[in-house]
Specification:
CATH architecture of the largest domain: 3-Layer(aba) Sandwich
Distance between the termini: 34 Å
Largest sheet: 9 strands, mixed
Strand order of the largest sheet: 2-1-17-16-14-3-12-13-15
Strand content: 25-35%
Oligomer: single chain
Number of domains: 2
Helix content: 10-25%
Low-confidence stretches: 348-353
Number of strands: 19
CATH topology of the largest domain: QueA-like
CATH superfamily of the largest domain: QueA-like
Structural class: alpha+beta
Radius of gyration: 21 Å
Shape: globular
Mean pLDDT: 94
Length: 353
């Protein structure tokens, strides 16, 4: 089977790329897509409770985005430098993306915040990334919070006024270079309503790397290599998800990161195993889902691995048709945009959705 990158292309008007979060997280629009028939309906996100059932399980990624973008200068020259923290290797050594990279060779020294934070480039690693050792006084998290900016995706050009808006309300464990954006639509009040319905909310952790935004360069999709990302599933989370599956409930992942976590952690029989590991799972059409039944997700970039993932769940033609409908209806796209609920069509409470 050959899959072409161009099979996942669609033309998106620039003005539909959301530049700012809505004042009320849950007031975004929600496109409902029946994965079996391709039928589309339109809703407001807070009304997602109409389409959940008692006994369902909502799986959310509780990773926390760190203010990973540091602006500084090269010591001695004063030349501007930008460092993006990707992954903590050990102690104060981080794998980073540095711009401009050519000037930051091993042995280079960098200064941030007038000397509050200093760094030495140790070596160049895979993809041209740099290993950097930081030195500072005090507590790392406090220094980073003072100097760092949220690493917004390149398609967002507006400055974020409130750091918390690129963070889910349930974010807990620091480690992501990007937000699991499907979760940005939930408020504490909405989550409370969902739990009172008899829907279980279960949390897993996957630290999102910048590989999320890495474009697919190869025309043959199967030649694309995914970046590795760390995930963790607790014993309690695994037990709850497995119990819901055994009882015939639906496992509904909030975001592609929760989806990839569960599909990575499941054995061949579909039982989720607790533990932590790194995953490079790449989900594209032809993939058989082991755990996930339904997915809440945002609208993704053309030809991206994320469009391929949702196409694996609902079919490429149905997904692209739903995207065209969203464009016609002027939905807001990408990280601060609107949401989509890919569901299984039959609602035991209300008949057909």
């Amino acid at each position: 089977m050959e899959l072409k990158k161009s099979d996942f292309y669609f033309d998106l008007p620039q003005e539909l790329i959301a530049q700012d979060p809505l004042e009320d997280r849950s007031s975004s629009r929600l496109l409902l897509l029946d994965k079996n028939t391709g039928q589309v309906r339109h809703e407001i996100f807070r009304n997602i409770t109409r389409y959940l059932r008692p006994g369902d399980c909502l799986v959310l990624n509780n990773t926390k985005v760190i203010p990973a973008r540091l602006l500084g200068e090269r010591e001695g020259t004063g030349a501007h430098v930008e460092v993006l923290l990707l992954k903590r290797r050990e102690g104060d050594v981080w794998e980073t993306l540095v711009k401009p990279g050519k000037k930051c060779r091993p042995g280079s020294h960098l200064v941030f915040g007038g000397g509050l934070l200093r760094a030495e480039v140790l070596e160049t690693v895979e993809e041209g990334n740099r290993l950097i050792r930081f030195t500072y006084e005090g507590i790392w998290e406090e220094v980073l919070d003072q100097l760092g900016e949220m690493p917004l995706p390149p398609y967002i050009t507006h400055k974020l006024q409130d750091k918390s808006r690129y963070q889910t309300v349930y974010a807990r464990y620091e480690g992501s270079a990007a937000a699991p954006t499907a979760g940005l639509h939930f408020t504490r009040e909405l989550l409370s309503r969902i739990e009172k319905m008899g829907v279980k909310t279960v949390y897993v952790t996957l630290h999102v790397g910048l590989g999320t935004f890495r474009p697919v360069k190869e025309e043959n999709v199967l030649e694309h290599h995914m970046h590795s990302e760390y995930y963790q599933v607790s014993e309690e989370a695994a037990a709850q998800i497995n119990a819901v599956k055994a009882a015939g409930g639906r496992v509904i992942c909030v975001g592609t990161t929760s989806c990839r976590t569960l599909e990575s952690a499941a054995d061949e029989s579909g039982r989720v195993q607790p533990g932590c590991d790194n995953t490079e799972i790449f989900i594209y059409p032809g993939y058989r889902f082991k755990v996930l039944d339904c997915l809440i997700t945002n609208f993704h970039l053309p030809e991206s691995t994320l469009v391929m993932l949702v196409s694996a769940l609902a079919g490429r033609e149905q997904v692209l048709a739903a995207y065209q409908e969203a464009i016609r209806e002027k939905y807001r796209f990408f990280s601060f945009g609107d949401a989509m609920f890919i569901h299984d069509g039959i609602d035991k409470q209300q008949g057909i959705m």
